[in-house]
Amino acid sequence: DGGITQSPKYLFRKEGQNVTLSCEQNLNHDAMYWYRQDPGQGLRLIYYSQIVNDFQKGDIAEGYSVSREKKESFPLTVTSAQKNPTAFYLCASSTHTVMNTEAFFGQGTRLTVV
Amino acid sequence: GQQLNQSPQSMFIQEGEDVSMNCTSSSIFNTWLWYKQDPGEGPVLLIALYKAGELTSNGRLTAQFGITRKDSFLNISASIPSDVGIYFCAGRTTYGGATNKLIFGTGTLLAVQP
Question: CB-based contacts of A1: which residues, under 8 Å, 6+ apart?
Fold first, then answer.
């Protein structure tokens, strides 16, 4: 089945450690995104990539890093520089054209810093 | 970062009632999307709107793209318990060079009492 897969679903990290969240899609989508969701808040854009080997900062990129070496994959690293990393992280993808297109989401990864 | 104004923040209704929620922005959008999110899951796309004035239905759901391109509403008719969740609007703009960048509303929490 075509879709977008995030792993793991739950992740625990000790303070001071970096951790990488996986996002894979087999929809042949060019664009991929990472969002952060906190309780009672909307989705805030961390990073997005419109094409392989290119990505741009979103609204809250500090303390995060990404790579886009393959079209199918857009991993997010939460670094020790992120002051408040506990949150629900959502990855999405969409086709990248000048036409209007929808974004589809993965199931999310809940990161807890202990 | 940019966020859309979504209202109401929460709604508590009886099964069978109709529901209406809306999103407004100071910016013009060329796409409006409506998503539903169940607890601990990623948002699922409900309706996509591409033209000003467009009215689109998906079962008991109806959404409209405002004529000014700065707002959209979602109606749910004859609500049922499984409608419970958080509903998000999202707008896409290609202005300012940020092609395919999605901006999300703050969400409307819907609770339906049987």
Answer: none
Cβ neighbours of B90 in A, within 8 Å: 103
| B37 contacts: CB under 8 Å, gap ≥ 6 | B43, B44, B85, B86, B87, B88, B107
Asked if A25 and A72 count as a contact pair (C-beta separation under 8 A), the reply is: yes
Closest among A91, A65, A80 to A113, alpha carbons compared:
A80
Measure the CA–CA gap between B102 and B32, rounded to whole angstroms: 9
Residue A94's CB: how many other CB atoms inside 10 A? Answer: 22
Tokens for B47?
Answer: 């309706």
Kindly list the residues from chain B whose CB atom is less than 8 angstroms away from the CB atom of residue A39.
none
Chain B residues in contact with A110 by the CB 8 A cut-off are 40
Chain B residue nearest residue A58, CA to CA: B1
- Output the six-digit token pair for B69: 């391109």
Paired strand residues for A63: none
Over the stretch B70-87, which tens digit does the pLDDT of each residue have? 999 999 999 999 999 999
Q: Spell out the residues 6+ positions from residue A104 whose beta carbon is closer than 8 angstroms to its own.
A: A3, A4, A27, A29, A92, A93, A94, B45
pLDDT at A1: 61
Render pLDDT for A40-95 as a digit per residue (tens, 0 to 9).
778 899 999 988 999 999 989 999 999 999 999 999 999 998 989 999 999 999 88
Closest among B75, B28, B33 to B50, alpha carbons compared = B33
